[in-house]
Structures are given as C-alpha cells and as structure tokens.
Amino acid sequence: MSLCGSVSALYLNLQSSKISMGSVLAFRSGESMGNTLRIPFKKRSSKGAACPLQVVCIDYPRPELENTVNFLEAASLSASFRSASRPTKPLKVIIAGAGLAGLSTAKYLADAGHKPILLEARDVLGGKVAAWKDDDGDWYETGLHIFCKYRCIFCFLGLLHLVFHFTILKVVALFLKSLIVGAYPNVQNLFGELGINDRLQWKEHSMIFAMPNKPGEFSRFDFPEVLPAPLNGIWAILKNNEMLTWPEKVKFAIGLLPAMLGGQPYVEAQDGLSVKDWMRKQGVPDRVTEEVFIAMSKALNFINPDELSMQCILIALNRFLQEKHGSKMAFLDGNPPERLCMPIVNHIESLGGEVRLNSRIKKLELNEDGTVKSFLLNNGNTIEGDAYVVATPVDIFKLLLPEDWREISYFKKLEKLVGVPVINVHIWFDRKLKNTYDHLLFSRSPLLSVYADMSVTCKEYYNPNQSMLELVFAPAEEWIACSDSEIIDATMKELAKLFPDEISADQSKAKIVKYHIVKTPRSVYKTVPNCEPCRPLQRSPIQGFYLAGDYTKQKYLASMEGAVLSGKLCAQSIVQDYELLRTLGQRKLTGASIH
C-alpha cells in the first residue's frame, strides 16, 4: 500500500500508556531520508531528570477500506449515478448552499447527467467547513475537522462494553464483521472519486486524553494494527487503567446490558432520555459521566451529557462495534475550501454544472398550487429550475420557509431542530510548544472540547518554529455573545492547565502572536432527546422540492459523513423523480432562466 505523502507522524515508543511532558514534533516527509527518520530525544522522567527516548518519524498508511461492506455499499450508490440512463433533457436543479451537503448533491446530480446550479450566499465554499486566509497568509477555519473523529469518541464506550460482555461466539462474530465493515464510507468514496486520497493525513491508531488531575499529562489508548476489531479495542483498554477504575468499568458495562439484549427497538426508545439521566437510571456512577461522557458529548455535538440524547450514543456504539478502523483519524492536509471543496466544484463544472458564490437566497417564491416557482436572490434576480434543493443548515432554512408550508407536518417538525452554538479558537504562539502531539487531543476541560497543534498535524500549516493551536470552545451557549478578548482569556486559563510549564494565563511564558476566533451561533443540530423523529427525509411532500443536510434523515449523525450521504440521497431522490419532474406542468423543460 502506498504511504500518505504528508506531514510525517511521529510515534513515541513508550512502554507505558501514560505520557508525561515529552514533546512530539512533526517533519515534512521530504525532510527525512526516506520514510523513516530516527532522531535523539529527551523526555522528562517522573523525577525531573532527562532520559533518552527514540522518536520514529513515519507516514501512516491509509486504512484498508475498499473491501468493506459499508465502503462497497457507498461505492455502489456512487456508481448508480454514473451508470444511470442519460436523460433526454437534463434537469436544471437549483441548489441553495455550497456546504458539503450541497456540493455532494450537485456532484452526484452532475454524475447522473443533470445540470445543477449551486448557489452559495457567501464568498467562500464549505459551509461548516469554510475557512479564510488572513493578511499574513495564514488560514483559520470554522471548526476543527477530523475525518472519522466522531467514531473515535465512541471507541471508549465500546471498549468497556466489549471487555465485560462479549462471549467467545460474539467475539468471533465481530471478528468476521470487522473484516467487511468500514467507517465514513461515503466521504472516503468521494475522496477516491475525486482522486485526492493523498490529501488525508492519517494518524496513528490512538486516542489521547488530557488528565485534568495531572496537569501536563495525557492518557493514551493505543490500538494494535495487527488485531481486528474488537480485539484491538480490548487490548487498548486493558493497557489503560488511568481514567476509570475496574469497579467503575464493571458497573458501566452492567448498565449497558439492556442495550445489548434489547437491540434496535431498545436503542430507539432511549431517544427520550439524556445521557446523564440514562446513566443514573442504569446505576452507573456519576464519575463515569464526568470522566468519559463529558468529553464524548462535547466532541460529538458540542453539548454536555445532561442535554445529549442517549439514543445518539447507542446508535454510534452499535456502529463502532463493527468497525476496525472506526476510531482511526485523519487530518486534511490543508484548508478545506481549496483542498476539498474546489475539487468537487471542478468536477461539477467539468460536467456542465455551475457554482455561484455571493448568491444569497432571499425568498422561495411559490406557484398557486404551493410548489416552488423560483428562488428570489438578494440582488433582486430570480432563478428558475426543474427542481429545487435547500442544502443550508436547518436554522437558515426555517427562516426561508414559506408561510403556506409552515403547518405541513413535514416542515412543522423542524421547529424541534435547533443548531448548537460553537466557537473555534486559533492561537499562534511565539514559540514551538513541546507538550503537543501529531494527533487530535481531548482536553477534558470544562470549556474546551478537542484541540490540535495544527503546525504539527497539517502539512499546509506546518511551522517548525511556532505552534498554532486550534481549539473547539464548547459548550458555547453562554460564551457566544462574549468578546473575543474574553474568550481568549478563558482559553488561556485552560491552556495553562494543559501546558503548565509552557503557558500561563498572563502570557509570562509563551506569548500570543495573534489569534482568530470564529463564532457559529447555529452549527449542527442539537441532538437533544426526542428530536430524532423530527429529522426530515430528503424528498419533501412538495413536488419538486428537496432538502439536504446532516440534519436530514440518514444513518450517520451530524457530521461530514452525514452531510455527504444526505447529498447523495437527495440526488438519488431527484434522479428517481425524473419522469415526474419532466411531466410537471409547473416548470418549463427548456431549462432554468434568470430574470
């Protein structure tokens, strides 16, 4: 298998799973002689003395996903667009929103021979993965986007489950399943279809958690590549005893028994309970929630376990148990608009589609029968098509929702779906921080969710002399209206606990060179209890009108994978409705027009 040509990852060869203040740096693969570089390294021992360690600089290969059931299923759906009968008269489909859902919808419609016209309100592609370049040429992003991140959050939960409650038969069954199941298959297929697989920088198969009671130290879960799931997970948790005691693990595992025995009906019935309420109902100690589920809930949905629906956890757990590479993570090798979104745009345009920026939708204009007549833009122009898609976040769509549709059950249920606020913080320091790793880190902080030193983890952002930390500030409900300086002050106080030898809140140690803060008042939908029945199908009850977005009904949660899959399902619905859309008298089949 070919190795990823990207920033080289460094493997710290430790016998213990606990990491102290050692530094893990990154090198561009071109700076090493070949694929491996060995360098001397000093790590502080528990007594403060320096002791030599061996740091190995390697590229981590892409996981083998092509023969897994989920990957093949996603590939089959992709192929169905390319192999579909060429339409005698291609449909002009007007799509609002050039995030991943809108881009995906347009891409697969173009593959099927239709002409999508994708309208983006802003001057930047990507929606929730948008990014901007500052005057110094540095990029700052809407969020810290990790491929397969959400799957890794549920790894810890799944491991505890496995250790105590799998019989030999179940282990064998899962062993077989692990050979045929993969994670984030639609995103992986999309990268392959665009020829950009080499733009994902895969990291070592580990999870790294900060230890709040031991400032500056981290706890690792390392998954042996030689073992299949679930054996690799069992090994990882058996080697780590720092986050939960064995009695706590046992009580937690016993609490999960009803989910094991009850199957999918039980899982669906838990949508009415929050994670915290479910844990207490099952007799699971509160410390389990504090040690595990706060980090899990914030990384998944930017909220705490007293708000997150337990169904969300159990759905992801069931999926994790079948995925060997489910917890393996990758970073994009640069900014998302150029490295991910532009290849999709180029593909769409090469097949006759269009993508237009600075085209904000002001209103959905209706025909007398309640169907869509046109999209009215902010500049006063209208655009007409054969079919219409809104691929914006749910909160934006609700602002555009025509009054005549508001009492229709399909649309009325959307009132329950509300985006969660999130803040993304970028801080450039005047030096290279030593206590960082070429990986995603779980802060387990009251204010911070996950973070990474992007000068280490991302090829385009690589800097050998200065660190740039990108951090997710969540929950952000009480902070979204605060000033940038207040958010930075609060962030620095938390960083002082993660980097006690290098960062202080008053900047008497590492100093801030600059920072950028991106506030998203309404991000992914808030997965609170009883919201699952409110998620709409992509085909609406209004003929010729469709929805796409990670909030719509699809088997993945609010994530990049969910957005991409929703776009494919939306495109599939339109292709299936081709004959109906052709015969509808509400539109001219000669194509869309702008007035």
Automatic annotation (TrEMBL):
Catalytic activity, EC: 1.3.5.5
Main localization (coarse): plastid
Gene3D superfamilies according to UniProt: FAD/NAD(P)-binding domain (3.50.50.60)
Listed Pfam families: Amino_oxidase
Membrane topology: Peripheral membrane protein
Regions crossing the membrane: 153-176
Pathway where it operates: Carotenoid biosynthesis; lycopene biosynthesis
Keywords: Carotenoid biosynthesis, Chloroplast, Chromoplast, Membrane, Oxidoreductase, Plastid, Transmembrane, Transmembrane helix
Cofactor annotation: FAD
Compartments it resides in: Plastid, Chloroplast; Plastid, Chromoplast; Membrane
SUPFAM superfamilies: FAD/NAD(P)-binding domain
GO molecular function, one term: phytoene dehydrogenase activity
UniProt key word Hydrolase: no
Catalysed transformations (reactions): 2 a plastoquinone + 15-cis-phytoene = 9,9',15-tri-cis-zeta-carotene + 2 a plastoquinol
InterPro entries associated with the record: Amino_oxidase, FAD/NAD-bd_sf, Phytoene_desaturase, Zeta_carotene_desat/Oxidored
Key word tRNA processing present: no
Superkingdom of origin organism: Eukaryota
Domain Amine oxidase: 100-154, 180-574
GO BP terms in the entry: carotenoid biosynthetic process
GO cellular component: chloroplast thylakoid; chromoplast; membrane
Family membership noted in the UniProt record: Belongs to the carotenoid/retinoid oxidoreductase family.
Binding partners and assembly: Homotetramer.
Designated name of the protein: Phytoene dehydrogenase
